[in-house]
Amino acid sequence: MIKLDEAIIVEGKYDKIKLSSIVDAVIIVTNGFGIFKDTEKLELIRYYANKTGIIILTDSDAAGRKIRGYIKGAVGSGRITNVYIPDVFGKEKRKTKPSAEGKLGVEGIDADILKEAFRKAGITASENSTRSDITKLTLYELGLSGGSNSSVLREKLQVSLGLPRQLSAGALVEVLCTMMNSSELAELTEKIKEENNGI
Fold first, then answer.
1. Rounded-to-integer distance, Cα 138 and Cα 79, Å
2. I want to staple 106 with a disulfide (CB 3.0 to 4.6 A). Which of 15, 21, 47, 186 is the partner?
């Protein structure tokens, strides 16, 4: 398992499942062309591009190239690394027929070939080997979810960290894990509560 600092952008949930067995990183799914209309997800991608850098890993077909190009244009100034998978012809096990171009997508590519694609793109493992201990339960315990004023508190936290306002609890946990541990989050949350008369 390779731990990466950068967030990885993939097209679908099966790509994410495949990558999760190889890398320990934040993986954002575009839902194919869904990214063209998903402003919240684009905000998150921009955030990561500027904070840690992003890795774009789309399929090697026309749709994958179109999504890759769109994200590059939408992100602008952030740090982007493109990882390309080779053209491998065939079909994924779960599919009844091959894709329009007959090539395997990210989910169908062998793990060793994927690791090699990362290596060729100059992606190396993170120096930071400790994993953050923030979970959804942490958010709940700190009053950032499940409480009467949770959404207000969560929004103030996100603004103070320069994050997009509209993040799901799951996305927020992923982002926070790249930034801090639970005691640092508790400290910051307490400070925000004090500044805002206990929200």
1. 30
2. 15
